[in-house]
Write a structure and sequence with these properties.
Blueprint lengths: L6 E5 L1 H4 L16 H9 L3 E4 L3 H6 L8 H4 L2 H23 L3 E8 L10 E3 L9 H9 L2 E3 L4 H12 L6 E4 L4 H16 L1
Length: 188
């Protein structure tokens, strides 16, 4: 007897595995367990997306801005990582599954959707004076990170329409409330 409910969400890698984050940027020891518990309690399965930054630059990378990832190599790597997921999504949808959302990471230069970390002056050699000057001019830009931008484009090219909802790590309770209401609307 098959009791699957065929409900799923796609979720940014670091929300399930904070070990993939840039050193010093993880608010949790392993995962956003309350978010995952919420998703599971609503009866949803997950598809964990890859971490593009970790796959391309490794675990010992520096934090970077959206502009640093906005280059042909990183974009092509994102597309290559995402193509198998597009095929997997197409198969799930063809077989009657409801993929309710892509849960992205607010502010991430690669995995944010409504906003991403921005600093057009980042670049060059790292030194104390340069770092401080660059940090002072950093901010959040209201546009998607590079990975989510490429994901949205690939979904559009393949006729897939899945909404995005950001998880704001600095405000997890409000984020979970928004995601909970979003998933409840999908259940109706």
């Amino acid at each position: 007897m098959d009791i699957r409910n065929k409900k799923m969400v796609l979720i940014s890698h670091c929300l399930c595995n904070t070990n993939s984050k840039v050193a010093g940027f993880s608010p949790k020891t392993a995962c956003e367990d309350n978010l995952l518990n919420l998703v599971f309690s609503k009866g949803y399965g997950i598809i964990q997306l890859p971490c593009p930054e970790n796959r391309v630059y490794g675990n010992r990378r520096w934090g970077q801005s959206r502009e640093q990832f906005d280059n042909p190599h990183f974009r092509s790597q994102c597309k290559n990582m995402l193509l198998p997921f597009i095929q997997e999504i197409e198969d799930y949808l063809k077989n009657g599954y409801d993929i309710a959302a892509v849960i992205s990471v607010y502010g991430s230069p690669s995995c944010g959707y409504t906003a991403s970390y921005s600093n057009s002056s980042y670049g060059g050699e790292l030194c104390i004076n340069t770092i401080q000057m660059q940090v002072d001019s950093s901010g959040i830009e209201h546009s998607p990170g590079i990975f989510m931008n490429e994901f949205k484009k690939l979904m559009e090219e393949n006729g897939i329409n899945i909404p995005f909802v950001d998880f704001v790590e600095e405000n997890p309770l409000e984020s979970m409330e928004i995601i909970s209401k979003f998933l409840e609307k999908k259940e109706v």
